Structures
1.
Amino acid sequence: MAKHPPDPEIEVPSAVDTESYPDSAAVAPSETPPNNRLSRRSFLSHLGAAGLAAAAPPVLASTSTPVAPPPVASEEGLTEGTIAINLRVNGQSHALQLDPRTTLLDCLRENLALSGTKKGCDHGQCGACTVHVNGRRVNSCLSFAVMHRNDEITTIEGIGQPDHLHPMQVAFIEHDGYQCGYCTSGQIMSAVAVLKENVGPTDADVKQAMYGNICRCGAYSNIVAAVQQVRHSS
Amino acid sequence: MDTFTFTQPTTVDQAVQAAAKSATAQQGAQIRFIAGGTTLVDLMKLNVERPREIVDINILPLDRVEPSPNGGLVVGALARNSDVAHHATVFRDYPVLSQALLSGASPQLRNMATTGGNLLQRTRCVYFRDTAHACNKREPGTGCSAIGGHNRMLAILGTSKDCIATNPSDQNVALTALEATIQIQGSKGKRSVPIHDFYLVPGSTPNRENLLEPGEIITSVTLPPPIAGANSIYLKLRDRAAYEFALASAAIVMKVSDGKIQHIRVALGGVGTKPWRSFEAEKALEGHSPDRATFVKAAEAALKDAKPASENAFKVELSRRCIVRALAMSTKSA
């Protein structure tokens, strides 16, 4: 993937710009609805430690005090065991200090707050974590983020936003290409890649091209219809 | 996952030097090269692989696919599986390789996985992948949970009393039928190893899977010139039509001339502890007419030494039928 020499510069990371990256899923409603209703995400975070403690074994229950924010990297240099990299995601460059164990998927979700990319199996078997690296679709769970200096990463947030959806997102909505929506961002990332790949014209060809994305709700026929609509109209 | 140091050498020599300090290049290696990561990261998450140092080789200039001086093809170790599968020369001259690659994994994984990494793909034996169980391949001397356990997917050829794990690769079965050569660079220089000799059967050391020594890196795979007038195909039989490992597969390179089989290479997947070249089948085919009776005889010969485990006796017949069918397909696509 990366075909560039390592970035020799050691850069101190800046705070994550959450303004430019609203925490939005593929085609799901905004996570922070304007009418003060609780979103699923905020509900879960309000449930928080108390809710967890009720369900968790004793070892977790003892940690019911608020969790301290993650340590901010020292201005003087790298936190021991971390690596400084520049990661380009959706056209923006991010200076990060990463534990080398951080997968690209975890980096997107946890370090950059781009939670549209989903963690399904975390072993390259489901496709929920599909993103584009230099225009090619890959499983972001099976790659360490530090391997992607200078690569161009595109996530579902870079494909489209609620006020300017990608045609593939529109087609998924029109054809009801999901039920629970968890696999949807990965499906759409694959589907957008398929538009540029050498894939035959039939529904069977689309199924072959999309088999790296599992949908446990079984929305497959609607997904194929959505992909075909965009292919036929472009 | 254990933590590790991470380096990105810019030359092959640096990479070799970085990895030469490892005590082994086999299971349990302290230093690992990473290319696509599709096997290594997966196994690190399972604590099956616990390298202390990772050497990222992705920036090395090893991703070319180009003609070799003798009319064959050099496939760089970092050439991605999807690029090799769709390469015009591979598609035209080595279709068995293209078909094998496209039958494996998923489009996303093929965009990551490399030629060299696929050569070193690890078994999918569930006991190897689960540290709660005994496994001689993962922890030598602990025993084999697969013998007498869940072994439906496992090997029937090349097994030992210590290990019956299957080599899961499709690519490597095709490369075996094509008689590919693995190009290796190490601290003692370069060497070329025919793919058949590169892999080891488990014997009493299933933790050793190939000839690689510490620091040695696969730089490319070379394919001999295509055989004029030969057909090659890959047939893969599995539990579902996509995204599944082979129960049995066959890679065939066959040339028929004057009604006789003049050149034949047969390699089997899904049934062997390594990509399985069947010299027995080839012997039964060469010089004979390409008819069903000959194919059945060859398939019988190929599976003659099969030793099924408690759950995979069906693979003996499945592999036979796979061979017969693949041979028949090879004669038709002329």
2.
Amino acid sequence: MALLQISEPGQSQAPHEHRLAVGIDLGTTNSLVATMRSGVATVLPDAHGRPLLPSVVRYFNNGKTEIGYAAQSHQAEDPKNTIVSVKRFMGRGLKDVAHVESTPYDFVDAPGMVQIRTVAGVKSPVEVSAEILKVLRERSELSLGGNISGAVITVPAYFDDAQRQATKDAGRLAGLNVLRLLNEPTAAAIAYGLDNAAEGIYAVYDLGGGTFDISILKLSKGVFEVVATSGDSMLGGDDFDQRLFCWVVEQAKLPPLGPKDMRLLQVRSREAKEYLTFHGDAPITARLSTGEFVDLKIDTETFCSITQTLVNKTLGPVRKALRDAGLTVDDIKGVVMVGGATRMPQVQRSVGEFFRRAPLNNLDPDKVVALGAAMQANVLAGNKPQGEDWLLLDVIPLSLGIETMGGLAEKILPRNTTIPAARAQEFTTFKDGQTGMSIHVVQGERELVADCRSLARFELKGIPPMVAGAARIRVSFQVDADGLLSVSAKESTSGAEASVTVKPSYGLVDADIERMLRASFEHAKEDVHSRALTEQRVDGQRLLEATRSALSQDGRLLSDEQRKAIEQSMQRLEKLLPGMDHRAIKHAADALNKATEDFAEQRMDAGIKRALAGRKIGSL
Amino acid sequence: MNAGAAKALTSPSSSHFELFGLPAAFSIDELMLEKAYRDIQSQVHPDRFAHAGDAERRASLQWTTRVNEAFQVLKNPVSRARHLLELHGIDVAFETNTAMPPEFLMQQMELREKLEEAKDAKGLDDLRKNLLSERRSLETQVAQAIDSDKNYKGAADLVRKLQFLHRFDEEIDEAYESLDG
């Protein structure tokens, strides 16, 4: 008798076309793109065979841009228009930006996120990042010979909601279908874990160009479970350069520098830092625009002593993550080192001493994040072959809450809660006849709202007048699998319901994205309508394919009537797809989504039953 | 398979124990709980539906959220006991019922004094170790009251004590954090 094959949900039974999916590490210093090729994750190099793309964007007054190595090598010539380390400005206000005095940019303080005035106009960090992502998108399309169906973009685990949203917006602006935002240390754990068939508890120490993350993960039978994460989103290799730069200025007794000389010495400092990784001392020489000649030498010992506080600063979050996980260093089976800055010998030494074991460096710390992201992108695109089942369970890095009386933050979702997560809390009015309530959403660990990051403010209106304390306002938080938050509030005691839902937007609303997209299409001489049509067709096609595969797996769950309704919606969408009306296609797709709502619920139920049934058989 | 029956088993209003196919008891097999959690996650997690339609992605998000919440509640002894007592119609009432036996309150005050005095990580480590053994013994009493004696009212008093100890544990965490600066 033939055995019935039951396939996993989320993947079709029929062999389908391999979808092109990429993983992108959008780094502070360098960015990379990787993909799965014949079952192996590979970084895609540029036409010259170089795997890295320096995260540097130079703007010209004719509207042209230069990105990567070319921009990097010219940065000291045109520092005001050559943006380096833009990741440090993502989702940040001017007051959050460290070392403003030693950056050459002409900052514009905009609500939500700082912007930079260049010869090509005022640019938001989202637009600058999108330029980098566009280069990587084009690189992968050229190299893979087709349109990219989806991308996973990595973010520091310690990024807050504003920084994550900004990254996702940049992806959208670069024309990418962002399948998921993935935490960098988690991506590294995937690459490391799958490569080494690792089991047990691992720490990932990720010191990048501008950010520091520590994640503690439990690896068990293909499940990557983050148990705790911590970090500092304002600490990275750049800060070591900055310390060295200050030392140079002090040693050479230099007067206040112009932007060009400042950038030149920063570049020289970075080069010296990298040189010190393999040598006992490093020369630092530069001819300044004033004619002055800087000629210094720094040895390892001096460099270690001026940067030791930075290394120590990473150990606080490490201890915190261990405590949050309820673990000690003895429980850790291995420490995976990630990020170019972990190449510094003093970092290796301090981490080794803290964990009382030699750190693991067997994967290139510059590439490991992109490789892990490529593996995850491949799974999310539905290319995963059966039997290679693995699952990621990640957490939020910072507590989410709202402001209550007296400027105090009330935590609703604590840090290290596994995502997706939701929680609701009830609040009440404090004045008789109060008809509105202002809700202030914050993120952070501190008790005072003023010390937390403000994510959104909104007003719930239309509360029926009652005595103080009688109204019941339910505030609900939902964090999705990207770690992004939406908040809703609802008053329901009186039956007259008032409710509102917001997604924090940080000054960049959909209309802004639309405008930026329009501008970039105009530049590329691309027709906005044809772009929208292509997108709707791709989405519609994807939905049809997904529905067909769901029907072939679980169609038996449906009554004849339900099945007929779904099939009718499918036929309608199929008929409209070749047409030119992108709105009609969208409506038909929305209708099909609506028609499959009950079916989706039934499939989840069936999945849970299947999971429990499998467990019982397994334990007999 | 009958879809209606599947729905009844895993409807959002069913208990967290039912969701994971576990008996409703305070003493649980943590390995079984973890395994059930992972097995269910691998069926409903959004990563399995990244390429699916909106309806499925939404359903997946809702279910995963529910499964995560249930897992959190069952993993933590205080919330597990509270959930269990609620199923038996007893409200533990952490917020409103703070009446405690005087000797327990004395003991709590002494603990907090010790926390004030603890100046280094070693002192905090010791406090935590003592706290852990006290929590374990209280948990044994809760298991006895709920699972064997079916004395739910008496269990609620013990659970309130356990909640006190959990809060003290959080205060130790805060003390560690201020040590780190």
